[in-house]
Amino acid sequence: MITFKKITKTYNPGKIEVHALKDVDITIEKKEFMTIFGPSGSGKTTFLNIVGCLDVATSGEYLFEGERISDLKPIELSMIRREKIGFIFQTYNLIPVLTAYENVEIAMILSRKRYTKDDIYKTLEDVGIADLADRLPREMSGGQQQRVSIARALVKSPKLILADEPTANLDSENAMSIMEVMKAMNEKYDVTFVFSTHDPLVMEFARRLVKLKDGKIEEDRLK
């Protein structure tokens, strides 16, 4: 699904250069459930941003489903993000004036895919919060809000979901519950999950661990 060939990301080229990623080679297959981990500054967020077409590499080749990302126009990259990639953020990023239902529905509106109300409710049911469809974010716990963000990422049936520190703001019980939900979705649907985390719990759930250090892959192993 995803192939990095000698991917390098350099900030401030020609000045005081910062190498966020250095000659990274990696392949991510369909339906993987994998975690990128490493110390702060190791390149985890840059890695996710490039995979998610939110940033571009300084050099190297990125293939998404066999398509060379560097050959695509901005509008084409936007379509990939909109239709094929779902994002889960540690701060949830829900729209505060919209209900859980509406926060999930907006992902379908932006994707321009056809949908019914049942599609929205089914996704909320999948993550265990169909009964909270009419609640605003402020009326929900952190764990419930994260479930809404997972539903928002899943509802458009993406090929890939990227989750940046998805358990960072949750207590251990909610973190465990959220990881169980995402594992179940990975097994139920044809969707690949890639996490960035410091949390040992996320690493425990992952089936593949990739450690970054100083912008390079130091370890890549299956569990």
Automatic annotation (TrEMBL):
It comes from the Bacteria. One of its GO terms (molecular function) is transmembrane transporter activity. Residues 2-222 form the ABC transporter domain. Keywords: ATP-binding, Lipoprotein, Nucleotide-binding, Transport. Pfam families: ABC_tran. Coiled coil: none annotated. One of its GO terms (cellular component) is membrane protein complex. The keyword DNA-binding does not apply. The keyword Cell membrane does not apply. InterPro entries: AAA+_ATPase, ABC_transporter-like_ATP-bd, ABC_transporter-like_CS, MacB-like_ATP-bd, P-loop_NTPase. Belongs to the ABC transporter superfamily. This is Lipoprotein-releasing system ATP-binding protein LolD. It comes from candidate division TA06 bacterium.
